[in-house]
Amino acid sequence: DSTIRATSAPSSPSTAIAEPEGIKINSIPTKPFEGQKTGTSGLRKKVKVFTQENYLANWIQALFNSLPPEDYKNGLLVLGGDGRYFNREAAQIIIKIAAGNGVGKILVGKEGILSTPAVSAVIRKQKANGGFIMSASHNPGGPEYDWGIKFNYSSGQPAPESITDKIYGNTLSISEIKIADVPDVDLSKVGVTKFGSFSVEVIDPVSDYLELLETVFDFQLIKGLLSRPDFRFIFDAMHAVTGAYAKPIFVDKLGASLDSISNGIPLEDFGHGHPDPNLTYAKDLVNILYAENGPDFGAASDGDGDRNMILGRSFFVTPSDSVAVIAANTEAIPYFKNGVKGLARSMPTSGALDRVAEKLSLPFFEVPTGWKFFGNLMDAGNLSVCGEESFGTGSDHIREKDGIWAVLAWLSIIAHRNKDKKPGEKLISVSDVVKEHWATYGRNFFSRYDYEECESEGANKMIEYLRDIVSKSKAGDKYGSYVLQFADDFTYTDPVDGSVVSKQGVRFVFTDGSRIIYRLSGTGSAGATVRVYIEQFEPDVSKHDVEAQIALKPLIDLAISVSKLKDFTGREQPTVIT
Ligand code: G6P
Ligand code: ZN
């Protein structure tokens, strides 16, 4: 018999860590699976991969094998997800393995629902040791599509690479899974279920998160805007997790009309959609905002609620501009009333934010792609507002990017600008705010070209080829009409803990501030996705109204020819342009 009784384990008087009592723990033999290495944010694979016997269980056990026992024994963990297919079964597996490893209590979102920012908020508020997020973010869901799992630490921030590397190491040698012999927990009702010394509490997914947001923003100010007859708002939850948050927050608390929420019910397959808020995948919303007499404000969030897209009437706010505008307008947000500690962006994100930091004399940081790199800066008290070109924006109220936070930040700015406007007076619009920002700071034209699901070999060779060019390049080299300032493969030294990460993206920076950056995505689940980021600074206001694709055309052509992208990938056109 391979079962062990935890209660019969000898207790050591020298340690306060107790084994779970009153539940039977089974030890199940297992064999390693290859390829359980986590990417930019967690482990993401096809559902069919995760549903292979013990595949998920192995990873969860490997995680417990990687954490110091004091980080989970008798501890409190949080569990939730974006509502995608397989979450319900996965939740039961995770609960049982957590119990089997001596976790004291798990807080689970009702129906297994908790957005990524909500998990971060709950971990912090409830002083949990950490939490699991069952999500493959914006990747499609359903039996044929993706599933994923992320682990966040006690500050609410994604586990650092030192931990995820350890987990991966342990997946390669795993031989045993410790699982509690307890029945499935009913996740449909809020309340506590006890199994001996272990308990599961099903929580409302919205309340802790909403409570936090109410301390960040002036809800009365936003409510004033949303109840104006001359301001029309629309939020697209893309059939994903923010559907669970949109009505309680925008409608019940802030007075938006019920029909301002579209696709507001989370579905296991996101309604066959691709829940990624950008110009391609949130096309329905874009069409509504660009239609004649469309609404004044539109926003969308992704599968797990951490990304956002902001639109005005016939106007798209690039994520790079969005974070810069928020940083320049923090007076509209009570959370920042005692000042802003610092600003940060990921390396490929445009330099619009840099100009705000300079003008406001704020500390500024450039980190690699991946929200986890902001966490240390926040914990050290050096960072308040940050963002990424990949539709992530947020602040140090939690340790994840936050889609609904970004929407509320923008609503606050618009509300603040219009608070003295009488009925019938023309309101200052989203595009007015952005254009005024450009007039003050200059415009950083920005675009990203994605080539999804390329052959890995060709994509890797292209990056190697670019690294080779970098190694031979020198300041002053001519690229058409552009003069090279420097080229490198981005290396980051964390100013807080001194850790170094290298090979974070090949960049060519030109003397006029223009940049071309190449990276392979760390979040895909099949093949390789090549990302090319193109940026050009334009101080001249008379040129600010040009379409980004037109303004950037020469630089885009240069980016494609310098990298021999078409030869290496065989692709004539990108799959997505943002
Ligand atoms: C996730 C991370 C982000 C990151 C994004 C893009 O959403 O949370 O921080 O910017 O992935 O990653 P990728 O490697 O696909 O460009
Ligand atoms: Zn996401």
From TrEMBL:
One of its GO terms (cellular component) is cytosol. It is found in: Plastid, Chloroplast. Its EC number is 5.4.2.2. GO terms for biological process: glucose metabolic process. Pfam families: PGM1_C_vert_fung, PGM_PMM_I, PGM_PMM_II, PGM_PMM_III. Keywords: Carbohydrate metabolism, Chloroplast, Glucose metabolism, Isomerase, Magnesium, Metal-binding, Phosphoprotein, Plastid, Transit peptide. Its main location: plastid. Residues 36-175, 208-310, 320-420 form the Alpha-D-phosphohexomutase alpha/beta/alpha domain. GO terms for molecular function: magnesium ion binding; phosphoglucomutase activity. It catalyses: O-phospho-L-seryl-[protein] + alpha-D-glucose 1-phosphate = alpha-D-glucose 1,6-bisphosphate + L-seryl-[protein]; alpha-D-glucose 1,6-bisphosphate + L-seryl-[protein] = O-phospho-L-seryl-[protein] + alpha-D-glucose 6-phosphate; alpha-D-glucose 1-phosphate = alpha-D-glucose 6-phosphate. It is an enzyme of class 5 (isomerase). Its cofactor is Mg(2+). Belongs to the phosphohexose mutase family. Monomer. This is phosphoglucomutase (alpha-D-glucose-1,6-bisphosphate-dependent). The gene is LOC106771896.
